[in-house]
Inverse folding.
């Protein structure tokens, strides 16, 4: 089933305040025949990233909007780096999220070939564990998740694989 990245701007003073939103998104997605794969929230509690599994993105977005849960950004994504089962088993393992606004003209095939070529280089920064990437099917950007001791380590890992960092977010645990 296809995956979708729904991004929400949120305002909270702690993660617990977002629990009703998590439940509402989960309930709406399940009612539409889909499933929440994972939620990631920036430590500043300003952005929520929801990865949702559903057969029809337009239908899912319509259900979310009717439920008063319209995301500020919504796009179909492809999972790279882990299987869907691994992601579901490791929810919460990531503590950093990197967004890279992909260059115009880059194709999915070229992106995937580059990812396969460069990913082994992460071994040069052993304190960082690359977990997974959600690359938008429209090739606007990718969202990469890492387990790392600090922001500098994530930046070093990105340098090793020659991948830019347009936005780096420490995730709330």
């Amino acid at each position: 089933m296809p995956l979708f990245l729904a991004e929400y701007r949120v305002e909270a003073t702690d993660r617990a305040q977002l629990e009703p939103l998590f439940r509402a998104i989960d309930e709406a997605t399940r009612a539409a025949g889909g499933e929440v794969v994972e939620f990631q929230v920036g430590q500043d509690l300003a952005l929520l990233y929801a990865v949702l599994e559903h057969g029809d993105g337009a239908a899912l977005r319509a259900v979310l909007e009717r439920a008063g849960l319209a995301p500020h950004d919504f796009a179909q994504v492809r999972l790279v780096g882990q299987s869907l089962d691994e992601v579901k088993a490791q929810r919460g393992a990531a503590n950093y999220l990197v967004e890279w606004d992909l260059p115009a003209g880059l194709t999915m095939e070229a992106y995937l070939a580059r990812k396969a070529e460069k990913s082994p280089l992460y071994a040069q920064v052993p304190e960082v564990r690359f977990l997974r990437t959600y690359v938008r099917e429209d090739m606007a950007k990718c969202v990469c998740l890492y387990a790392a001791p600090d922001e500098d380590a994530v930046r070093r890992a990105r340098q090793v694989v020659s991948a830019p960092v347009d936005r780096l977010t420490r995730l709330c645990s």
